[in-house]
Amino acid sequence: EETGKSGYDHYMIKEIHEQPRALRQCLRERVDEMAGTVDLDDLGDLSPTGVQFVACGTSYHAALYGAHLFREAGIPAQAFLASEYATSVPPIGDALVIGVTQSGETADTLSALRAAEKRGARTLVVTNVVGSTAARECDHAFYIRAGPEIGVAASKTFSSQLAALNLLTLGMTQGDDTREVINALRELPGDLQRILDESSAEAVAELYQDAGAYFFIGRGLQFPVALEGALKMKEITYKHAEGFAAGELKHGPLALVTADTPVFAVVIGDDEKARKTVGNVKEVEARDAPVVAITDGQTDVHRYADHVLQIPETHPRAAAVLANAHLQLLSYHTAAKLGRNIDKPRNLAKSVTVE
Ligand code: AGP
Q1: 97 and 105 in contact (C-beta within 8 Å)?
Q2: Degrees to nearest 5, angle at CA 19 with 203 and 341
Q3: d(CA 11, CA 6)
Q4: Whole-structure pTM value
């Protein structure tokens, strides 16, 4: 087992550090950098008029991100929690139903995909495991090629899912910014490596390890990052953590915000979305909450933050992966300081095969 960890204390931190390599594997052979195109020939002609994603947990957060990408490309898309989808299947029409599942064995996701298939839908799975049940049962399989993930808490497979969903959208739609996204994806492994080498997330973890609760906020593409930041924190530290759409804070959760609840705000770019999130940061700062900004520095959010976890300026799609890496390190180091069983958190299994 120690050899399997290659000198790291836990599989999770090893897998966090494997992300640059995992991303390179995911992108290799799919991206033609000269032509600025993505090759999905093995999947046949999919050209969907609509997309429904089904997934659970971390994979659901990737699905939310994926649905956002399709909508940006003008294709109606929605992400559903697989357990809810199977209970009340929405009208599918001729939408493509995409399951996102690292293991390809999650019972809720399989059940949702089967329900869709029963209604005549075309199905595709985005998975890490060749030969998994989902890969065998779906019409098409897109492999994220992240390599085996042992830690119960997903890390490298989440970033590879995000990269894979970019490739899927770019390959299936005619986006104006395809070349720009491909360039950002190409730079992602190097940018991620620098964050892994230089992040001050461990120092932030040290400061807030005794906090009563942790809140994560983000907007648009950064909303799934906030949800994932909170899920990771819950899973491996056993602390109360919640992710919110930044704009929802004032509709209730703000009542929970105190000087004992650090708020982690993902603020990328300097568009209207980012500026509105800075407004939400001001609201929590005014309630004495410690603020940690995960930002590329394009807004003045640092003025309201106690700490900044910096990411380089890049495309917002790539920024989501980079921001998430800081949050993975934050949860990991908090859990390590609290002495938690990081690779096998209580009550959780790597693959959930019951509904
Ligand atoms: C992730 O950290 C969790 N262990 C969990 O939410 C997981 O993502 C979920 O159970 C779905 O698993 P899957 O991707 O294998 O379908």
Answers
A1: no
A2: 55
A3: 9
A4: 0.97
